[in-house]
Amino acid sequence: MATTMITTLDRSSRAAARGLSDISIRNLFIIPTVLFLIVFNIFPLIYSLGYSFTDFRASTNAPANFVGLQNYRDLLNDPYVWANFAITAKYVIISVAGQLLVGFGVAMLLNRDIPLKGLITTLLLLPMMLSMAVVGLFWKLLYDPSWGVINYALGLGNFEWLADPKMALYAVALTDIWMWSPFVMLLSLAGLSAVPKHLYEAAAIDRAGPFYTFFRITLPLVAPILMIAVIFRTMEAFKTFDLAYILTSQPTAELISIRLYKMAFQEWQTGRSCAMAYIVLIMVLAITNIYVKYLNKVKER
Amino acid sequence: MRKLVTSMLAGIGLTLACGTSVYAQEKSLTIFWAEWDPANYLQELGNEYEKETGVKITVETTPWADFQTKTFTEFNAHGDAYDLVVGDSQWLGAGSTGGHYVDLTDFFKKHDLSNVMAPATVKYYAEYPGNSGKYWAIPLEGDAVGWAYRKDWFEDPKEKEAFKAKYGYELDVPKDFKALRDIAEFFYRPDQKRYGIAIYTDNSYDAMAMGFENALFSYGGELGDYATYKVDGHINSDKAVAALDAYKELYKFTPPGWAKTFFVEDNQAITENLAAMSMNFFAFFPSLINEASNPNAKNTGFFANPAGPHGDQFAALGGQGISVVSYSQKQDEAMKFLEWFIKDSTQKRWAELGGYTCSQAVLKSAEFQNATPYNKAFYETMFKVKDFWAVPEYAELLQQLNQRIYPYMIGGSGTAKETLDALAADWNATFKKYGRVQ
């Protein structure tokens, strides 16, 4: 019993009349995409791997010398780079956890019959439709100690959100949470509305309390979709650049991507920045893999 | 139907018209610069060149933040989008050794530009390596860091009296860094939402370095020996340590949240009544005497960077020279433009339009010095300026400086001596990496 991988061509169709076989149609669709991927993704990826073993600088005409693992050694021995990684990890945890909490919470609130539900949901989605750079510029004004709305509203006087080395990273994370919680909310809403109503009815008949219902029915059923939100947001948070770059220049809030940008396009240390990009790539892949494994496990349940 | 035919004809006509006009202006030059007022003045100057010669000049601009990145991306790709570039002084090393700039030594000698332009501008905007007699750019926009201050605050009799009672001398434009500090402290009144001083603190490019250099050079310190690349004993000398402490001291008297500030914020400090004094490049002062952009225009005065405790008086250099891009297809045309640009009459016109000429003759003329409230301070400054390293790896040196000094300045970690010792070690390692020192 053979399983067909692709739907066979309808014999009476125009394509068949022109003598196109299944295979040639498949190729027609796939080859341009594969070519595009190779030229713009795979080739630069491999090419930059080559560069990461050289001392190449794009700003000079000097030839690139092979230096072996020197770039990787230097980078992994650089305390500043380690600091950047630690900062990034902290940022990812705060920001993703915050988004999950706020996003899921709001979704729970919205997952009932309330008037103007559609309008409220749409309005709540607005932040994530803005450009990151614009959000950064707006929040810089909001955080401003002299004329910012936030200090005014909270009565914090001249509290320096972005100039305080300890606060700067939290301020960036807060902005990110504001911007991306709606994304988690949207996914959670989809998940919540897919939970079969009869489970809740059964729970109600069994006189299960609200906490029990939440932890035994709602959460396990929404978990897979929440995991997807976590994967997306972690990957995005890991490579956050524009928001943090615009908001603050505190070394305590220098994320790995900002470091990478400076190395590649201000200092023009092309070889070394390629090595750095690879280190980041490997880390993101590893983290994502852990999540995907976990996601599969959750789905099996 | 008729409407359709008419509009189609009009469309074809328009296309043809555009086509022919492009054809007629075959001779054109593109100059690349950062997006700021001087670039608009240069465009106006270019329009006059077009009237004279028929060669169209287009000044293309991009915001400061990605000026360096965009230029070098174009250079690295060997692109010919720009015929001339008005590049930052620190780029000379990368531009010349990278083969991006055309060698202008012969042009320089032919027109005796070393004597026509102010000496500091020749040294820092045009020559690389130092004292080599090789020139890569024509000084175009002179610039340095100066100061703006609130004349009305300084001249208020009550303030004058209170200041004298507290410090024992007259409140006036500061002559040295001690007075600068005292005045900053005097006007620092958070309860009145008034602060003492606005300085550069942004560590994303060269802003904080420029601010620190103002103190360093006036304190008699040096970044290092530009001929031998020796940094130990220079950047961490006692004078340099004292200078860093002096600059950090000023940070205490800045408005709140003053941790990522450059020219925009420092001008705002004056326009928004935040600070008594504000550091900025001269190129940003025109908007401070314009009542449309500064409500305090009438009450804004200017002074040159004050002297240090040992009487040295220098300022950090900004400004740019114009270079011919070696990938340009129109280098001959570009050279013709430069010949026109260095003429005395053009330089005079350039200054009138608002450009900061580097021509000695124009700078020294009374007409120039009296044209604006800050021209005199500019003239005084341009003969005592010093600049950052101009080697191709300057950006790495800059990053290391930011990395070391910022946490000390803003975060208050470590001591000035520790900070500068660490910086000396970083710089030494970088120079070793590029084979400049053993």
List descriptors:
heterodimer, A: 301 residues, mainly alpha, MetI-like fold, 2 domains, B: 438 residues, alpha/beta, D-Maltodextrin-Binding Protein, domain 2, five-stranded mixed sheet, globular
Structural class of chain B: alpha/beta
H/E series of chain A: HHHHHHHHHHHHH
Rg of Cα set of chain A: 25 Å
How many DSSP-defined strands of chain B? 11
Tell me the span between the first and last alpha carbons of chain B: 82 Å
The number of helical elements of chain A comes to 13
Instruction: Report the sheet with the most strands of chain B, covering strand number, pairing sense and barrel closure.
Output: 5 strands, mixed
Number of discrete domains of chain A = 2
CATH fold-level name of the largest domain in chain A: MetI-like fold
> Pair with the most extensive interface?
A-B, 28 and 35 residues
Query: Mean of residue pLDDT of chain A?
Result: 89
State the helical fraction of chain B: 40-55%
Describe the structure.
The complex is a heterodimer of chains A (301) and B (438). Chain A is mostly helical and 301 residues long. Chain A folds into two domains: 17-51, no CATH class; 79-300, MetI-like (MetI-like fold), CATH 1.10.3720.10. Chain A is 71% helix and 0% strand. Chain A contains 13 helices and no strands. The two termini of chain A are 30 Å apart. Chain B has 438 residues and is an alpha/beta fold. Chain B has two domains: 28-143 and 318-386, Periplasmic binding protein-like II (D-Maltodextrin-Binding Protein, domain 2, 3-Layer(aba) Sandwich), CATH 3.40.190; 145-225 and 236-315, Periplasmic binding protein-like II (D-Maltodextrin-Binding Protein, domain 2, 3-Layer(aba) Sandwich), CATH 3.40.190. Helices cover 48% and strands 12% of the residues of chain B. Chain B has 20 helices and eleven strands. The longest helix of chain B is centred in the first third of the chain and has 23 residues, at 2-24. The N and C termini of chain B lie far apart (82 Å).
